[in-house]
């Protein structure tokens, strides 16, 4: 669930001064006993219990009853004879000993002898005041906002405090823990999501409560159980999860490429939608398996633990070749009713509904907003050679793709949409424009729709771009560079969980002698190469030499598993000899670390990143000489920092 304090709000001022908590700007350790105040008021004692309701209505109508948030105006008091009476607390400016402050209604009730007025000391303590009221009495006066932006996941409260609030982080956490009864743990994010993990988890510190992040989270009538430290979950996306799931129809086929623990997949399964749900995170995959069983959607939802690109590339063929699946939802009938039906005493029930899994994907969901657009390069050729199976030859449409992304929060949202379309076009190798929407002036078959999901920060907006996969993309014939006789995608399940993909032939030259001065090409040639143009291979996924070496060895291990004989072709042996000499990284963990480092530079093309991982240049000048397209993409300082990190990893290996 998302907290009711879902944004930074101004300091609360609704309480009159006399009802606010005492102030202590120097407090750094929470002292609950400090927050106590006695407020002098007046009360109208009611002599007959039967008159309480009537008198309360009269005094409320005359605005004489105390009206302060969260305070019950009816109190138990002692009468003059020691008996117990009910009393109504009166507005703070009405004084029992000053008749000039009495309203006509008060005077009339006193004259009738129905009530009498007397003093009443109202005691307020820590339990009365809210989190905003307490924290306002502690923070410096020059802080015109209070930290109220947090997300609740199960029993865990997740804060993302700004630097100026960090000196008060423990106070903030303890007060929030006190004021939210469903919370047992308060944590603060210390670095950005994904900064230390490709699985979008984040470093955090425990501020208050139990050190227990094993949560139970409910969403769309589904239950998820997971370790919040090991998987990604964002409660603020529940509305978006619901919006997209509502677009799917029973018996449709959905491929959820970055499924996480299943916030799209599991609710969709409950709607009798078939889902292949994939996630790279092994723990997320385990959680999703549990959620599928726990929510009884195993007939409809199948979890996968693969690289996103491989999953997309294999999905079309895999589904076409899969055995047909039909699910019959049998009626649940009580025994007595069943006997009556069999005896003819009641009418037969209608046939149970059946749901048949399609042989084609209807929707792809790609919910990894920081990187999902990068994975669109897996779609070209996904149905290569299968165009006769789709419209106009049949009634089958190509799938819709729903890809999440971030973009700048510009004043004109159209600019964000143009930016998103350009980025999509670059990855799929086909131009999509903002006019390609239903009713637009462009290609209406694309059915483009860009939905504004949420404002992440003042300069960062999250969007969902939905479009139908163009024929030119889906049926694109695979070039020779896409085909590799050494590695079959279908064997990839034997590979380690990483973003490695099948290698493609490319001109990976041996690294020049270390520290040798590099001759720069003529200026004209440098300018001509400053824009990376690879033709049909522009969006082909590429590997560094180290990654290619690792992939080939893993595939060979798989082929030889179980004592199977496999003779290496001569060209494969030569390739491995070459890679053994020139691959800079041999250790699998180091290769993964290099991949994570390079993939963090999303401003670079995959080809450029793989070249950097293969060449391991000493300095930025050398790198830009060998890879001219880097000239205007990355500063010398940032490039040198990247190269230094690669050197550290290489030295560690050596």
From TrEMBL:
Segments forming domain SAM-dependent methyltransferase TRM5/TYW2-type: 150-471
GO BP of this protein: DNA-templated transcription initiation; mitochondrial tRNA methylation; tRNA N1-guanine methylation
Binding site for S-adenosyl-L-methionine: 241, 279-280, 307-308, 367
Region Disordered: start-end pairs: 331-356, 497-526
Organism domain of life: Eukaryota
Key words of the record: Cytoplasm, Methyltransferase, Mitochondrion, Nucleus, S-adenosyl-L-methionine, Transferase, tRNA processing
Family matches, as InterPro entries: HRDC-like_sf, MeTrfase_TRM5/TYW2, RNA_pol_Rpb4/RPC9_core, Rpb4/RPC9, Rpb4/RPC9_sf, SAM-dependent_MTases_sf, TRM5-TYW2-like_MTfase, TRM5/TYW2-like_N
Principal location listed in the UniProt entry: mitochondrion
Pfam families: RNA_pol_Rpb4 (PF03874), TRM5-TYW2_MTfase (PF02475), TYW2_N_2 (PF25133)
Family: Belongs to the class I-like SAM-binding methyltransferase superfamily. TRM5/TYW2 family. Belongs to the TRM5 / TYW2 family.
Subunit annotation: Monomer.
Protein's UniProt name: tRNA (guanine(37)-N1)-methyltransferase
């Amino acid at each position: 669930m998302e907290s009711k304090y879902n944004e930074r709000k101004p300091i609360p001022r609704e309480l009159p001064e006399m009802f606010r908590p005492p102030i202590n700007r120097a407090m750094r350790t929470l002292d609950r006993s400090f927050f106590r105040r006695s407020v002098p008021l007046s009360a109208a004692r009611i002599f007959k219990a039967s008159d309480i309701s009537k008198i309360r209505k009269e005094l409320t109508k005359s605005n004489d009853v105390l009206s302060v948030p969260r305070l019950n105006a009816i109190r138990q008091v002692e009468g003059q004879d020691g008996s117990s009476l009910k009393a109504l607390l009166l507005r703070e400016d009405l004084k029992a000993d000053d008749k000039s402050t009495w309203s006509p209604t008060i005077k009339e009730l006193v004259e009738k002898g129905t009530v009498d007025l007397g003093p009443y000391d109202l005691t307020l303590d820590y339990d009365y005041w809210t989190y905003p009221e307490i924290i306002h009495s502690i923070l410096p006066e020059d802080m015109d906002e209070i930290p109220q932006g947090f997300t609740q996941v199960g029993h865990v409260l997740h804060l993302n405090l700004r630097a100026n609030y960090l000196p008060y982080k423990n106070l903030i956490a303890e007060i929030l823990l006190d004021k939210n009864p469903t919370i047992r743990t308060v944590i603060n994010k210390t670095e950005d999501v994904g900064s230390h993990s490709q699985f979008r988890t984040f470093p955090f510190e425990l501020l208050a409560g139990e050190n227990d992040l094993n949560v139970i989270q409910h969403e769309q009538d589904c239950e998820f159980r997971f370790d919040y430290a090991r998987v990604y979950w964002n409660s603020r996306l529940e509305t978006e999860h619901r919006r997209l799931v509502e677009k799917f129809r029973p018996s449709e086929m959905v491929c959820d490429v970055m499924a996480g623990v299943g916030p799209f997949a599991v609710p969709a399964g409950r709607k009798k939608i078939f889902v292949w749900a994939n996630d790279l995170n092994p723990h997320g995959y385990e959680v999703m398996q549990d959620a599928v069983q726990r929510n009884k959607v195993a007939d409809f939802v199948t979890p996968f633990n693969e690289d996103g690109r491989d999953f997309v590339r294999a999905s079309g063929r895999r589904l076409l070749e899969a055995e047909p699946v039909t699910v019959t939802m049998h009626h649940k009938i009580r025994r007595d009713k069943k006997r009556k039906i069999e005896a003819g005493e009641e009418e037969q029930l209608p046939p149970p509904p059946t749901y048949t899994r399609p042989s084609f994907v209807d929707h792809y969901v790609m919910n990894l907003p920081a990187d999902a657009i990068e994975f669109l390069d897996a779609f070209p050729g996904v149905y290569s050679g299968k165009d006769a199976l789709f419209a106009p030859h049949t009634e089958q449409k190509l799938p819709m793709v729903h890809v999440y992304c971030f973009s700048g929060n510009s004043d004109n949202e159209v600019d964000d949409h143009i930016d998103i379309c350009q980025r999509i076009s670059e990855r799929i190798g086909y131009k999509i424009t903002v006019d390609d929407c239903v009713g637009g002036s462009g290609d209406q078959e694309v059915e483009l729709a860009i939905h504004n999901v949420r404002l992440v920060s003042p300069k960062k907006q999250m969007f969902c771009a939905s479009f139908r996969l163009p024929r030119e993309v889906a049926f694109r014939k695979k070039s020779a560079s896409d085909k590799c006789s050494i590695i079959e995608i279908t064997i990839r399940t034997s590979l380690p969980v990483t973003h490695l993909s099948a290698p493609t032939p490319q001109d990976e030259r041996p690294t020049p002698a270390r520290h040798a001065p590099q001759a720069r090409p003529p200026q004209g040639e440098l300018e001509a190469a400053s824009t990376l143009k690879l033709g049909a291979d522009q969006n082909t996924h590429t590997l560094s030499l180290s990654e290619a070496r690792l992939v080939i060895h893993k595939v060979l291990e798989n082929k030889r598993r179980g004592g199977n004989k496999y003779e290496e072709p001569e060209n494969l042996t030569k390739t491995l000899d070459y890679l053994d000499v020139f691959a800079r990284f041999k250790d699998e963990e180091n290769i993964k670390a290099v991949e994570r480092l390079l993939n963090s530079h999303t401003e670079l093309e995959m080809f450029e990143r793989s070249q950097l991982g293969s060449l391991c240049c000493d300095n930025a000048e050398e790198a830009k000489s060998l890879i001219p397209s880097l000239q205007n993409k990355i500063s010398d300082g940032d490039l040198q920092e990247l190269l230094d990190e690669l050197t550290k990893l290489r030295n560690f290996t050596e």
